[in-house]
Amino acid sequence: MMPDGSLEREVFERAEIQGSSYKAIAAALNISERHLYRIRRRMIEMIEASESDLSARMPERLSALDLIATLLRYGHAQRAVEAIRRAENVSFTARERIELAALQAMAACQTGDFAGARTVIERIAAESARLGEADRGFARRRLRMTQGYVSYWYGLYEEALAHCEAALAPHLRKSPAAVGAEDLRSVAGDAVFLGLLHQEGGSPQRAVDVLTFAEKLLRRSNGDVPLVELTLAYINRAFAKAALPDSLPEARRDADEALLLTRSNGLLCEEVLARLASGVLHEFAGDTEAALNDVRYALDLGRAVLSGDPLCRTHYITSRVQVFAGKIDETLTHIGEARSLVPPDSLLGTIAEIVEGRIHWARSDAAATFDSASRGIVAFQRRKTSTHYLGYAFLSRALAGERLGVDVRADAESAVHLLSRGGFIADQRRALELSARLTGNRRHEQIARDLHA
C-alpha cells in the first residue's frame, strides 16, 4: 500500500492508527503543515490505488464507505466512482447497501451524470421496499435525503428542501435527546445538509435552528464526537448568521470554533471552508488584509487537497474577497479554472455567471456585467427556483443597468426581495440603497440605514 519508511506511511500510522492530530504530526516530523497536506493527499491516492478488498485490509476508520464519503467530500468524484465499483464485492449490511447507493448517487451528480443519479434513486426506493421494519425508517430517510441532494446539485432548492424537511421531520419535531444512539451521527449529518439548504435557499434563521439541533446531537456522542459533521455545522451556521441582523459577532465565534477544530484534527477540506468563512467575515468587518490572508491560505490549501465542487466553491468565495480588496488580476487568473471543475448545468456551473459578473463590475465593464448577470438570471429562472444567488444576479444587473441608462428598477426590487431571504447583510444593504436610489423608495432607504451586521 505505502512503502515502509515513507513519509506517507509515517503520516498514516500516526493519524489513522495512533489518532494523533495533524498539527502534532507536523511538529513531530519537523515539516510545515502545508507540506503535510500534500503528503496526506498522496497517502489517500496510494490507499485508493492499491486497495482491492477495502473491508478486509483497511482499518475500520478507513472502511469502504468512509473512504468513498471522504473522496466525495474532497471533490474527487471520479476516484469515488472507482472506489464504489471496487466495493461491489464487499459484504455490506442492508443499511450499508442503502448508504453505498446514496453515495453512488452523489458521485453521479458530481460527475455530471444526473440521469444516473436518478436511476440510483429508483434503486434505493426498490431496495427500501424489501427491507424489514427495523431498517425501513432509515432507508426512507436516506431515500428522501438523496433525492434532496440530487435536486440541490441542480439548483432546485424548493424541491430539495421539501425532500429533506420531510426526511427529518420525525426528528426535528422532537428534542435532540430523543434521537437513538444508532441514528445520532446519520441524523446529525442530514441536519447539517438541511441547514446548508436553508442557508443558501433563503431561510437563514431556519438554518441556524437546524444547525443548532445538529450541534446538540453531535455533542451527545460519548467521547468520540463526529468532528467533520460538527465542524460543518459551525461553518454553515457562521454563514447563516452573517445573513441575520446584529449577528456578526456570533458568526465570528462559530467560524473561530470551526477553525480550531480543523487545525487541531487535520480536517483539511473543512479547514478550507472555515478559512473561507473567516475571510468573508473579515471582509464584512472591513479588515482587508486579514480577509485576503484567510482566502489565499484557503485557496493554496484547496489546490493541494481538493477538486471538483469544494475547490470550485473555494475559487468563488476567494474571488469575492479579492474583488472587495481590489485584487482583480488575482481573481482573473483562476476564475476560469473554477468553471472547469463542475458540470456547466449544475448549480455551481450557473453561479459562475454571477461570479464573472462581479468581476466585470470591478473592472468597470458595465456591459459585460449586464450580460453575465442576465445569463445567470435566465439559468435560475429556467429552473423555476428562488435563492439569494438569484438576488445577486439581479443586483449585478441593476448596478450595470443604472450605469448603462437602462430601466432596471424591477431588477433592484427583485434583488432586495431575494437577498432579504439569505444574502449577507452587507449585500442586503447595497441592494436596499440601490433600490432607494432608483425607485425613490424611502422605506428601503430607512431599512438600509438601520441594517447592521
Architecture blueprint of SSEs:
Layout (H helix, E strand, L loop, with lengths): L6 H11 L4 H8 L3 H18 L3 H4 L6 H10 L3 H10 L7 H17 L3 H16 L3 H21 L3 H16 L11 H18 L2 H16 L7 H15 L6 H18 L2 H17 L3 H18 L2 H17 L3 H12 L7 H16 L3 H17 L5 H17 L4 H11 L5 H15 L2 H9 L3
Question: Can you tell me about this structure?
Answer:
By secondary structure, this protein is mainly α. Among the domains are: 83 residues, no CATH class; 75 residues, Alpha Horseshoe (Serine Threonine Protein Phosphatase 5, Tetratricopeptide repeat), CATH 1.25.40; 111 residues, Serine Threonine Protein Phosphatase 5, Tetratricopeptide repeat (Alpha Horseshoe). It is built from 24 helices and no strands. Helix 15 packs antiparallel against helix 16 and helix 21 packs parallel to helix 23. The radius of gyration is 22 Å and the shape is globular.
